[in-house]
């Protein structure tokens, strides 16, 4: 938690906060249509939020969502343990540089521990210093390559 907000894991009944979080993510990433033009229905979001393999954490200030984190528990096959992948994390511009992203990650780390998660990982783009800074502060950096392997017939690379 920060003096700017509180954080909490969203549950199956938190549909309105999840929709607000999607709006914050869309605005922060400059992709509002991606996050709001074809939204899933309430039943889908409720099922997703109740899932053992998905976690959403919201940052709230005065009962308004100002940041969010969403990602997936990835059960491993070589050992009885899991990893967690942060798929999206964003904070409203007015609340950045106030510890909100760190609070979201800390809340996530506590929430996934009982699920057998031994590591949380995230990727960031070169040049995205605002994203890289908190991750550098909280973890160990690895330089890796990323590839999108598309299914056959789905466009470039998936011919």
Can you put this structure into words, describing what you see?
The structure is a single chain. The chain is α+β, with helices and mostly antiparallel strands. The chain has a single domain (6-138), classed as Gcn5-related N-acetyltransferase (GNAT) (Aminopeptidase, 3-Layer(aba) Sandwich). The protein is 32% helix and 25% strand. The protein contains 5 helices and 5 strands; from the N terminus they run βαααβββαβα. The protein has helices at residues 15-28, 32-36, 42-50, 100-112, 129-138; strands spanning 6-9, 54-61, 64-75, 82-91, 117-122. The protein has a 5-stranded mixed β-sheet, with helices on both faces. Helix 4 (100-112) links the parallel strand 4 (82-91) and strand 5 (117-122). The longest helix is centred in the first third of the chain and has 14 residues, at 15-28. It starts with 5 loop residues before the first strand and ends in a 21-residue tail after the last helix.
Largest sheet: 5 strands, mixed
Tell me, briefly, the overall form: globular
Which range does the strand content fall in?
Answer: 25-35%
For this structure, the CATH topology is Aminopeptidase
SSE map:
Layout: E1 6-9, H1 15-28, H2 32-36, H3 42-50, E2 54-61, E3 64-75, E4 82-91, H4 100-112, E5 117-122, H5 129-138
Parallel strand pairs: 4-5
Antiparallel strand pairs: 1-2, 2-3, 3-4
């Amino acid at each position: 938690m920060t003096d700017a907000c509180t954080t909490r894991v969203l549950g199956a009944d938190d549909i309105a906060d999840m929709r607000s979080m999607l709006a914050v993510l869309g605005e922060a990433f400059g992709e509002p249509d991606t996050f709001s033009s074809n939204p899933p229905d309430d039943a889908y979001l409720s099922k997703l939020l109740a899932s053992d393999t998905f976690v959403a954490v919201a940052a709230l200030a005065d009962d308004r969502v100002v940041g969010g984190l969403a990602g997936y528990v990835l059960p491993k096959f070589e050992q009885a343990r899991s990893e967690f992948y942060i798929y999206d994390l964003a904070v409203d511009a007015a609340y950045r540089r106030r510890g909100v992203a760190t609070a979201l990650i800390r809340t996530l780390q506590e929430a996934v521990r009982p699920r057998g998660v031994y590591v949380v990982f995230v990727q960031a783009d070169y040049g995205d210093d605002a994203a890289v800074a908190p991750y550098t502060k909280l973890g160990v950096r690895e330089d890796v390559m990323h590839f999108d392997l598309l299914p056959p017939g789905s466009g470039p690379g998936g011919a």
